[in-house]
Amino acid sequence: MSKIDYQALREAAERAIPAMERLLMLPVDDDLISEQELKDSGVDIDALNAFKFLAGPETVLALLDEINALEETRINDVCRIAELTKQLELAKSKLNEQREYYEGVISDGSKRIAALLRKDNLASATNIEGERK
Asked: To which H or E segment does residue 79 belong?
């Protein structure tokens, strides 16, 4: 693929627009107009030639190749984003499952600790009662 000078192509196109507009204003029946007659009519032949040179078939094919490559890249990026989104959702689901599991473990542990403290307090109270007698 050839290297495209985008700035030069843009400038040539911008210069060619007024020349094309003047060319289109000429009478339709003037098929064979000399270059001098075109220049006399205000048509910038140099601008048209520069644009024609820069926007030739090679440039158009290179631009189409670039568009195709960018489209392929975009498609690949969209597929990658979809895959990463799927992986993220799976990771979130797994984290939620783990969170729920550990919340249950903590709850069970808290209940067990509370039961042991009640049992210990009951035993302490019994010992104190036994010592008083």
From this structure: helix 57-132
